[in-house]
What we know:
mainly alpha, 2 domains, 89% helix
Amino acid sequence: MADSAKKEKAAKKQNKPDFFKGVKAEFKKISWPDKDSLLKQSVAVVCISVVLGAVIAVLDFLMQYGVDFLTSL
């Protein structure tokens, strides 16, 4: 029992460098966007977030007004 536990620990220690080598190899496969594309996508995300936030705020206000109206009846 003790021998198998020692072998498992030794195997785990050997796998850590292999893991990081694999991570490094996978990072080399990634195609990173250029600056222009990154800027356009970032602006689009910010704009959509602002518009969606405004829509949610308007809907929240309308629902609050409707609930207040119904509870005042």
